[in-house]
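User: Second chain of the day. Same drill as before.
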Amino acid sequence: MATKRKRGNSWHYIVRRAGLLPKPIYLSFEAEKEGDEYVARLEALLDRGVVPEEFVAPKADPKRLRGRVSEYRSKQAISVDDAKLLPVVLSRLPIEIAMADLTFYWATEWVASMKRVHNLSPSTIRHHVGALSRALDWLAAQGDLPTNPLRLLPRGYSAYTADDAAAVALVEGRKKEDQERDRRLEDGEEERIREILAGEKPSGRQRALELNHQPALQLLFDMALETGMRMREMYTLTMPQIDLPKRTIFLDKTKNGSKRQVPISSVLLGLLKAYEGDEDGRLFPWWDGDLSKPALAKVTSRLSRQYDRIFQAANCEHLNFHDLRHEATSRLFERTSLSDLEIAKITGHKDARMLARYANLRASNLAERLW
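Assistant: Same format as last time:
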């Protein structure tokens, strides 16, 4: 059994297995439940005599993947999410893995291990593959790889197969299902939310919600529906990024690590002209200009909780702020004749497959174009 203890805000584990592990494994997790589940699965593997590759003693190799990815991170501007994900991805790969090992066979085996060994969800697997794939694209451009094997993975690679499910069951796990959120605003919900934002008393309550920075909360809600922008992209906007004469918002660096231009609808244009907020050059009052990860996470958490309160008061069950991005994207497909590529440029979806689930929204438009 693993040794477990809490130190500060994290849980620490020591796994020993004489004759199988060359040395004890030291692990730490912020969440006790996550740590217990991971260690239980690790010990189940060890009981079968299986040592995960990341815990096998490394062999000497002059061109390891880790070193090359470190160079990629130092020389190439990457997104905040990729900067956070890549160390996690590499920690789950063998330390000695070399560039020459990166074949299509390795790619399929890696994906299988994320399911069968780590029991990750399909969406997490796609995020891991995406982060590493962008690094391998850069390395391939440098001549380190003939091609990026992760780009050869078939569609649906992250879904658990019957064999994956059987393998997971052997180590006390179960297959994970994709949890795509398709929550849209239902009839009457937008109106009820606007009533709460305007200061009306929620049904069944004695008084209205106390909403600090009420005009800003209203504008952020409208901007989300009119542009499909992410919450952080909006609350970090500065006044120079908004060009009202050109009806364009210029995003310097987005979640995907690239610049983007977002058109301003006539509705949003009128709202921006009427809005009187200017927080020392920033559009919204919640962010003070600090771009550090903890500061941004704090603002995101605070705003998410505020809108959760507003949505609950408006009787909008299971609605969160990010669902407004899905609603806005759906409206672009339903209400405009923009192409998929044009919509992707507005919303910042880099993978066309991310927009595939919106295709059915244009079924009526396609029918109208038939003879």
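The longest strand covers residues 10-15.

User: Great, on to the next one.
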